Amino acid sequence: MVHGPVAMSEKSKQLLAKLQQNKEETEAIQALWRSFGSGFTPPDYLQCSIWLQRHDLETVIYGLSAMSSHMNRKRQAEEELEENSGYGSPEQVALAAKWNRSNMMRYASACMLRRRERGE
pTM for this structure? Predict the structure, then answer.
């Protein structure tokens, strides 16, 4: 029978450190998302964890930044539609109609994958 505190294995320490790092990186990802002012809820812990399992933090930031740029182009298209009394080019209408939180996350994920494929 062992008395006193049980020494934590090196693997357990590494796992706890990785979980803490994942938590901190998730908070950073969510803060970055909110900084874009999209009005949509940031990705949850599970989605951030999936991204971080597949990509390094720099690639996740790249994907979210590309998504933000794309979102800004969409906002510009919406503003042009409003200025033209709701009439715009078919491309502008299509762009404005399909932008939502789910599409934003898919777009960011696709940007992350493309970056990884290019080896950046």
Answer: 0.76
